[in-house]
Every structure is written in C-alpha cells, then in structure tokens.
C-alpha cells in the first residue's frame, strides 16, 4: 500500500492554522487595552436642544422607536422664562402706576369740582356786592346833584355839599372795588373750569390707552 501524499500536506495546513490562532491569542490576550478603529452601525441617536433649559415633559421612553419630526420632549427655556418674569414684573408695575394715576385723576376731579363750586359762589357774591355798590352809587350821585343845586341857591351850607360830595366819592370807590372783585371771581371760575377741562381730557386719554 502506497503512503498518501495528502497526509503531510493536511498536517502542514493544520499546523499553520494552529500557529495563527496561537499568535492571535498571544497578541490579543496580552493586550486587553487595544483600541480598534472602525464604523459601527447603530439605531441609537443622541438628541440635544439648541437652547438651554429644563425639560418640562418627556414624551418617549428610553428604547422607544421614533420617527423623523416626532416630538420627543418639551423644554422650558431659561431665557424666555426670565423674559416672562421681567414682563410680568413690568406689567405689575404698570398696573400699580395706572392705579396711582387713576387715584390722582379722581382727586383732581374732586378738587376742580370743589374749586368750581367755590368760584361760582364767590362770583355770585361779588356780583351781588357790585350790584349793591352800584345802587348806592346811584343814590349818592342823586343826592349830590340835589345838594349841588341847593348849594347854588344858598339853601344848604358848604359842609352839607362837601358831605354829599365825599359820600359820592366813597360810593364810587366801593362800586369800583366791587366790580374789580366780581371780575376776579369770574376769572377764578374760568380758571377752575379750564382745570376741569384738562382733567376730562386726561380721563379721555386714560380710557383710550
């Protein structure tokens, strides 16, 4: 029986494989920290937000499959929250200022109305005094005219004439003072009325705002 030629060849191949396996075991077993570079396919995706903030609501769980465009979480942004707090504070301050302005406006309305009532009463009184002073002046003027006629005929003395003359002068002064006072009272009423008009204009602007 002839010896087979395949046996030595088969033994050589087995020996070569064993040698390679032994080399790999020796190389990798002695170097556990070896780093290999390559591409690994995975279905895991790391997501992040473009703005900083706190997650308010997480709509998926770890390991869930998601689709493109699907909402996975809602974030409360830090800067918008700060802006919201600022605007809320500003709105509160504006409301306080508006309330103070309304209170001031109400006070001005009450004040101007009281000024108008006072000015109206003063004007009526001044006009009455001016009318009375005018009547006294007419009477003093009439008395002076009669006294002057009697003086010319010698029916009255010079002292009586002087008294009538002085009475006429005093009545004229009182009438002039009463007229001036009435004019001042009328001007005061006009000023109070203008103040009320200004308050009404402010009230209209506040309502429009």
Task: Please give a structural write-up.
The protein has 209 residues and is mainly alpha-helical. The chain is built from three helices and two strands, in the order H-E-E-H-H. It has helices at 6-30, 78-153, 158-208, and strands at 53-58, 73-77. The protein has a two-stranded antiparallel ribbon with strand order 1-2. The longest helix has 76 residues, at 78-153. It is rod-shaped. It starts with 5 loop residues before the first helix and ends with a helix. The model is unreliable at 1-6 and 33-40 (pLDDT under 50).
Average pLDDT confidence is: 79
State the distance separating the first and last CA atoms: 120 Å
As a whole number of angstroms, the C-alpha radius of gyration is 56 Å
Structural class: mainly alpha
Unreliable residue runs: 1-6, 33-40
Number of strands: 2
Please list the strands of the largest sheet in the order they lie side by side. Answer: 1-2
Query: Helicity, in percent?
Result: over 70%
Indicate the overall shape.
Answer: rod-shaped
**Beta-strand content bin:** 5-15%
Order of helices and strands: HEEHH
- The helix count comes to 3
Q: What is the makeup of the main sheet?
A: 2 strands, antiparallel
Question: How would you sum up this structure in a few lines?
Answer:
By secondary structure, this protein is mostly helical.
Summarize the helices and strands and which ones pair or pack.
Elements: H1 6-30, E1 53-58, E2 73-77, H2 78-153, H3 158-208
Antiparallel strand pairs: 1-2
Helix pairs in contact: 2-3
List keywords for this structure.
mainly alpha; two-stranded antiparallel ribbon
